[in-house]
Amino acid sequence: AQTVTQSQPEMSVQEAETVTLSCTYDTSESDYYLFWYKQPPSRQMILVIRQEAYKQQNATENRFSVNFQKAAKSFSLKISDSQLGDAAMYFCAYRPNTNAGKSTFGDGTTLTVKP
Amino acid sequence: EAGVAQSPRYKIIEKRQSVAFWCNPISGHATLYWYQQILGQGPKLLIQFQNNGVVDDSQLPKDRFSAERLKGVDSTLKIQPAKLEDSAVYLCASSLDRGSEKLFFGSGTQLSVL
Predict the structure, then answer these.
(1) DSSP H/E element including A48
(2) Residues 6+ apart with CB under 8 A from A84
(3) Please, which residues have CB within 8 angstroms of residue B56's CB and are 6 or more apart in sequence?
(4) pLDDT tens for residues B9-35?
(5) B107 → closest Cβ in A42, A47, A50
(6) Residue among B40, B99, B103 minimizing CB distance to A107
(7) Binary contact (B101, A97; C-beta < 8 A)
(8) A81 band by pLDDT with thresholds 50, 70 and 90
(9) Less packed terminus of chain B by CB within 10 Å, N or C?
(10) A85 or A102: whose pLDDT is higher?
(11) Which residues are registered as beta bridge partners of A32?
């Protein structure tokens, strides 16, 4: 079974600084997707960034980027120029690329942004 | 584009009572998911529908939980009877198809069982 581990229950960052959230996963599949979701107090999960396992290039979305290390099964999220609105729970998720693949989520990291 | 709608937003019941949650996915999305998110944990899949058929319900406690998706659109998740450990946020998500990697989530229903 696939597992996703987020080893940092809480992180904090100063506004405008950079922070990195860690994620490791375990799978025997070779073709899959990895995601970072943001969950604010409104509870709605919002997709931040995604990475296809077959792509070596790290995904980037504005201030958000990932460091994908396939051999090490590591998928960290870097948030640059942190803003107050970035404060939320962040979940790492894995999904195999099969027709009925289901997503497995980590237990989340609570990010606090200090003004 | 309208998002995934869920109701109610909050529900408080006593143990052994029954409760139902409703979800309306994004129009045209064939795949619908129900997740349970216990406080301090990530969402865990309960059941996945493709149109009105069940694809995966391996994690659904079938002795007390049931779900249906009549006509392949709206879905209802029911708990009967509820236990204290069912206290959680129940999230509904949809995707264009079960091969689609992008999930769209609703805002969930927060259930408290007293």
Answers:
(1) strand A46-52
(2) A15, A113, A115
(3) A100, A102, B45, B47, B48
(4) 999 999 999 999 999 999 999 999 999
(5) A42
(6) B40
(7) yes
(8) very high
(9) N
(10) A85
(11) A96
Give percent of chain A above pLDDT 70.
97
Q: What's the pLDDT at B13?
A: 97
Contact B105 A44 (CB under 8 A): yes
CB B25 within 8 A of CB B34: no
End-to-end CA distance of chain A: 41
Could you tell me the two tokens for B93? 């998500």
Model confidence at A100, pLDDT cuts 50, 70, 90, reads low
Task: For residue B42, give the nearest of A43, A47, A105 by CB distance.
Answer: A105
**B105/A4 CB distance under 8 A:** no
